[in-house]
Amino acid sequence: MERLLKHDYKLFSGIVMSDLQVDTYNALTSQINRYHAAGITPPESLLNGRHNMLQAVATRGGQA
Question: Phi and psi dihedrals of 12, rounded to 5?
C-alpha cells in the first residue's frame, strides 16, 4: 500500500502542494491501493494520471 500525503506536503522541487492537489493525489492513491488490496493490477491510466498530476505540480506548480 502506498502512503497518503498530508496537507502542505513539500515536493522535492520545493513546491508546497495545495490542499486540492493533495486531496486529488490521495484520492488517486486510494483507488490504486484498493486495486492492490484486491490483488489486481491497477489500470495504467490511473497510474499515469497520478504520475502526470504530480509531475505537473512539481514542474509548473500545478499550472497548465
Answer: -60, -25
Q: Where are the beta strands (DSSP E) in the chain?
A: none
Residue 5, pLDDT above cutoff 70: yes
Q: Yes or no: say if 58 and 13 are a contact pair by the CB < 8 Å rule.
A: yes
Q: Is 28 helix (H, G, I), strand (E, B) or coil?
A: helix
Question: Do the Cβ atoms of 41 and 51 come closer than 8 Å?
Answer: no
Extents of the domains making up the chain: 19-60
Tell me the whole-structure pTM to 2 decimals. 0.87
Distance of alpha carbon 1 from alpha carbon 20, whole angstroms:
22
